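In this section we walk through a basic example: taking a raw amino acid sequence and producing a predicted 3D structure, encoded as discrete structure tokens. The instruction is simple. Fold the sequence below.
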Amino acid sequence: MSKKLKLQIVCCGAPAKWALDGVNHWKKRIFSLAEIELYFAKSRNVENTIIKRIADKYCIALTRKGKKYSSKDWADMLKNLSLSPGNITFVVGDAEGLSEKILSLCDRKISLGPITIQHDVALIVLLEQLYRALSINAGLPYHRGE
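The resulting token sequence is shown next.
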């Protein structure tokens, strides 16, 4: 039996109450395909907390300055990264985005599109896109695009 992919998402602060249902929905769906851990850094000293959480991990930052990926690109990326040992860590900023210091420590930068997305919505979109990519790789019928 193959080992489940391990995903970690580190966020600047916890999502608002209105977003929790969406976060929990996608987290449960992902769990059938991969291990997933969400970590919400407290607002006090967020930068240092995030830097400690991403140290020695393959880290992907969500930033409007990042590369745009199709759903198939996400699936290919996760498949390729799953061949390497260790966790894949995604970092989601707050309303101010991620600091240059955090961005410089990340191995890859991805944009969810050309629009600015509120950080709680970005977290939900990230979770859905991770589920979509994992379902593509698992041969599940969820993805109907392309």
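Looking at the output, two observations stand out. The chain has a mean pLDDT of 91. The domain at 5-138 is CATH 3.40.1280.10 (Alpha/beta knot). In the next section we compare this with other chains.
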